[in-house]
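Q: A reviewer asked whether we had any structural model of the full assembly, not just the individual parts. We don't, so I'm hoping you can provide one. Inputs are below.
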Amino acid sequence: MTVQEKKVIAVPQVEPRTPIPIQNLRVAGPTPLPPEVLRTQSFPMLNHRGPEFAAIVKRVTLRLGYFFQTASPVLTYAASGTGGQECALVNLFSPGDHVVAITIGSFGNRFAKIATAYGLHVTRLEFPWGKAADPKVVEARLKENAPFRGVLITHNETSTGVTNDVQTLAALVRDINPEALIAVDAVSSLGCIPLEMDAWDLDVVFTGSQKGWMSPPGLMMIAASPRAWEANKTAKLPRFYFDWASSRKKLEVWQQPATPPVSIFYTLDMGMEMMLAEGREAIFERHRQAGNYIRQRAKAMGLHVLADPEYASNTVSALMKPEGVDSKALLKKLREQDHIVLAGGQDHLEGKIFRIGHLGFFSQADLDQVMDKLELRLHEAGFRG
Amino acid sequence: MTVQEKKVIAVPQVEPRTPIPIQNLRVAGPTPLPPEVLRTQSFPMLNHRGPEFAAIVKRVTLRLGYFFQTASPVLTYAASGTGGQECALVNLFSPGDHVVAITIGSFGNRFAKIATAYGLHVTRLEFPWGKAADPKVVEARLKENAPFRGVLITHNETSTGVTNDVQTLAALVRDINPEALIAVDAVSSLGCIPLEMDAWDLDVVFTGSQKGWMSPPGLMMIAASPRAWEANKTAKLPRFYFDWASSRKKLEVWQQPATPPVSIFYTLDMGMEMMLAEGREAIFERHRQAGNYIRQRAKAMGLHVLADPEYASNTVSALMKPEGVDSKALLKKLREQDHIVLAGGQDHLEGKIFRIGHLGFFSQADLDQVMDKLELRLHEAGFRG
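A: Here is a predicted structure for the entire assembly that you could use as a starting point for your response.
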């Protein structure tokens, strides 16, 4: 062995830890966690191959099926929502497959971008940010662009606060191509906004733990229809970590092929128990009322909602920044003075909108505080509506 | 829209939640968490794009660099250790690239399997389970199999309890091919067993939060050398979720491209603070003593350690099941009667070995209890050593 120069890396000088502030966290995920859920995080670790953890995986998996409204197994991966997009694509398709990506914002674009990165032939059907996918336009463009193997649809576009009518879109895709593989990004909608995977004949649906599930980020949940499982057998895109077949096999004994994020299973287990106690339809109604409330208050104070009113999201609202107001300074003031955390805009909407998350665990009082303080701070910034 | 048959999925009947038992959890990850770390898990969520979380990412990232002993940025992903293997491969190589996979067990085989799944030309250098990679054999076989673009090495093979001499192996790879990309799976070693990424001229090193880091599973940490970053520019394997370049770019503002597992950052922040307080060399010494202790006790009670003594791991020990003892029944009794959780064997060693994890957070009393009860239960099972 050659003698090498020793490169010693010293202990870095860092800022000390400071307490995590208590905030009214209203970005579109991570979302605040109920105390009952936070409490589960201090439970001790378990062997991910043992019977105690298997019981949790079983309960969580079966209950996820209810929220997905699917009889197919719901698979889970340590990943973000973006991991869900990649997981859907690599399990369904082969290089060169033609997919139509219906995109209405940043996350729809990301879905298309991943498909391109994996060598698919991607046709983008883009709609202006703030608009939903227009079924008539989609129908015409799909016919023009046939044949296609798959269609990528965003249920709820987190970057614009718009919810697509997935049921209608899926039905018209199916009319044009009964064998099309319909992959739905339901990251920021599932559990909050109605979606019925089997009844709507969707082929892949995925979501993330940090959105409507009262859990921290770290777990991605995905289900595939029998048609998608059939496609999976011949899909040639390379995959291993996100492979469905190995996950399904391990799920027979309520395990995962790799080590799952044990603590996120604890939170999801408790989170879904609370969700079931509230009732799925009641949760949908709570989100519907929240969406209406935020939009009404925004309009009443003279703000313009980015979303087409017919398709405005009930989990996240994007509000246009008024002329002359510095949105970065506004968000900073809300965070520092009022402990309210909102999100800015993404891509070309950076600095032009701010977004309010109203999904998962929230009360009317939380939303009241957001809108009251927003009104106050906008007023201070000279905005008179 | 066509009227579709409504497929209603009812709320599933499930077993109710039961308390998570307090156990002496001695699998090779997940590992028990110190109370200080568990406490951080009840901290409220933060905006992953806000300044409070950026401060955590910065501190964690810099400190990881110290434990990796690298000046390169340490990237993090919501993933398991298997995700680390995939992340290393897709960022370094192009289809058809020749890589030599040195494998001494199940996880080495997995690394090779992922390389094959991604269309690399893989030469496996396999060593018998329980043995380390023999530098002389590796040298000869590498010369026979040149040219090669990369070499995959397991630092600590979790399935057999064997630690490769990565420093020596890397040096001889470098002698044969100065431009070879050396990717090291340090999932169950980093932070516990000495590894110096820059000084040993390793190109990729990755680990997982649930091993030596006093954290739950869910976060994979990976670093790449300047040589690896150069290779990354021309590496053509498809990737998006695990892409380094986008992660590095976002790390400039102490963020991740996708939503990171916020709660695991809390634990890692506290876990590393505790690790630094103990001192890196003191941690290594604690693991060295633990390895010696487990092996000495095993031998004293007449058990055979699978690992070649010269390369026996200081984080996980694989003990041969004695003739006539039902290892499944033994592990069950230990778990149910003594609340001690050990792991079985993997692949062809299933039922033939049991494995004891001694990494991360443990005390001598924890190890004493494991070995005392193991001795007792083996005696009850008729084993007289």
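A: Points you may want to mention in the reply: The two ends of chain A are 74 Å apart (CA to CA). Residues 156 and 163 of chain A are 4 Å apart (CA to CA).
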